[in-house]
User: Which sequence fits this backbone?
């Protein structure tokens, strides 16, 4: 898939919870250009249409263009994410861990690596999403939009697991950006120095502060 | 809290001031970072938050939390990447449950118009 630099025009729209096509129209030459750009952004995985005329954008769109190609496999996998639920609580995650084989990423893996944020979604890369989905359904899981178990197809590079989780967190965006920052702080040496996200200073300071509080908690517990 | 922070009481309870913080951040006896707000949260008066707090069950305990309208407005005003993601989630799941009369008590007309648009687009 070609990532065209002209798509970066969408970065000037600014971060908001939801957008109307007219807002994109204002920064492009024409209505047709706005629709074409939105269509490309949806193809890549940056945008999602929510209602007629309305769409959302992942915060990863606002990362530098030179990082986009590294985020593409994660974005493509997230676009094909399938959600499953049974009890719609932590028990689903415990059960899914027993049923599915694959590489865990995002919330749960980030929590194992950083202990920064309590995990919610259990996202796992599997070789065969249909087979994995059927295995969950055999155990009475239902497929929908609210489930906490998320099956992702394996796309792209998995040689460096920490690097992949880091890029997945940046691609997912939102609160996962804090996980990416924490991974960069705690596992700097495991990451490719040429493939780095760009983060706001206030977010980096917040994560540093949380990690610091966490290490004090650990030393406090050790002293007890 | 709807009054001045009793720092001596906190120290007595084993809290320690979070040295890096300019505001009301403290470390609890178990090492949890706690932010105390005494005047407002995102320009929403603490008295309003306490008067309209709702009870939620957390395990066997019931705790008071800020109600939906206050939380959404605070997130909207904060406007950081994480707050935007939180507001999107809140609107998607609970956008249809907003009490707009209550929202009008704390939000500016322009903010209400923006939040209505977001709710219209995202609420399931």
Assistant:
């Amino acid at each position: 898939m070609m990532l065209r630099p002209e798509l970066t025009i969408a970065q000037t729209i600014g971060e908001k919870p939801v957008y109307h096509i007219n807002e994109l129209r204002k920064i492009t030459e024409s209505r047709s250009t706005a629709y074409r750009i939105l269509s490309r952004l949806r193809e890549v995985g940056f945008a999602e249409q929510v209602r007629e005329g309305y769409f959302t954008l992942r915060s990863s769109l606002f990362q530098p263009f030179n990082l986009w190609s590294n985020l593409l496999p994660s974005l493509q996998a997230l676009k094909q994410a399938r959600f499953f639920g049974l009890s719609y609580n932590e028990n689903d995650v415990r059960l899914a861990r027993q049923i599915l084989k694959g590489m865990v990423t995002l919330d749960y893996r980030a929590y194992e690596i950083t202990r920064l944020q309590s995990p919610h979604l259990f996202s796992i890369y599997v070789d065969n999403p249909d087979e994995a989905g059927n295995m969950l359904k055999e155990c009475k899981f239902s497929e929908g939009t609210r489930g906490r178990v998320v099956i992702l197809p394996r796309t792209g590079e998995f040689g460096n697991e920490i690097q992949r989780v880091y890029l997945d967190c940046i691609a997912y965006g939102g609160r996962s950006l804090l996980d990416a920052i924490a991974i960069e702080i705690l596992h700097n040496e495991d990451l490719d120095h040429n493939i780095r996200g760009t983060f706001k200073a206030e977010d980096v300071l917040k994560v540093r502060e949380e990690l610091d509080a966490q290490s004090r908690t650990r030393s406090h517990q050790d002293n007890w | 809290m709807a009054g001045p922070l009793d720092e001596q009481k906190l120290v007595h309870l084993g809290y320690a001031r979070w040295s890096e913080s300019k505001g009301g951040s403290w470390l609890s006896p178990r090492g949890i970072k706690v932010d105390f707000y005494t005047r407002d949260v995102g320009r929403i008066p603490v008295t309003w938050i306490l008067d309209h707090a709702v009870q939620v069950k957390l395990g066997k305990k019931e705790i008071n939390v800020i109600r939906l309208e206050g939380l959404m407005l605070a997130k909207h005003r904060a406007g950081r990447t994480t707050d935007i993601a939180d507001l999107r989630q809140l609107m998607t799941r609970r956008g249809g449950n907003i009490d707009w009369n209550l929202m009008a008590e704390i939000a500016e007309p322009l903010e209400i118009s923006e939040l209505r648009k977001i709710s219209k687009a995202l609420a399931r």
